């Protein structure tokens, strides 16, 4: 284990980093973080639906009843995240009233949520689109 990894896995360092991030969020005010908290919550719900659909498919059960709510949740959540990113982008490039403590933190969180959500959703959709094991065995 390298020295950086050893430092980052130390429970005291992890606690300080977690509390520090929470403290920074408090400085900006909860109103600045609340929309992204809502997006994170909705994204978590959508990813749970995707994970359930993948689980049901891999266990041979039907998960079709999850597809519509899953799609709606993903579309709504990613739309909200993209709108947040566009709003922050306007502050940076058009109006110029970008404040790093609030807007920068929102930008980082919105980008992280979007990227991680897309990665997880794409991975799960690959599993859902893949042929079932029985179909592969029959074809062989």
From TrEMBL:
Keywords: Cell membrane, Membrane, Transmembrane, Transmembrane helix. It is a multi-pass membrane protein. Its main location: membrane. It is found in: Cell membrane. Pfam families: CstA. GO terms for biological process: cellular response to starvation. Signal peptide: none annotated. The chain crosses the membrane at residues 12-30, 36-57, 64-86, 106-125. GO terms for cellular component: plasma membrane. The keyword Transmembrane applies. Residues 6-80 form the CstA N-terminal domain. InterPro entries: CstA, CstA_N. This is CstA N-terminal domain-containing protein. It comes from bioreactor metagenome.
């Amino acid at each position: 284990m390298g020295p950086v990894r050893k430092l980052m896995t130390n429970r005291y360092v992890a606690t300080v980093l977690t509390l520090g991030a929470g403290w920074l969020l408090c400085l900006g005010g909860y109103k600045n973080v609340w929309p992204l908290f809502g997006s994170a919550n909705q994204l978590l719900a959508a990813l749970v639906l995707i994970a359930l659909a993948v689980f049901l498919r891999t266990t041979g059960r039907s998960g079709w009843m999850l597809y519509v709510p899953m799609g709606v949740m993903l579309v709504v959540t990613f739309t909200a995240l993209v709108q947040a990113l566009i709003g922050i982008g306007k502050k940076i490039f058009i109006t110029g009233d970008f404040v790093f403590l609030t807007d920068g933190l929102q930008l980082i969180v919105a980008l992280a949520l979007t990227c991680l959500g897309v990665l997880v959703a794409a991975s799960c959709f690959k599993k859902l689109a893949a042929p079932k094991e029985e179909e592969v065995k029959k074809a062989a």
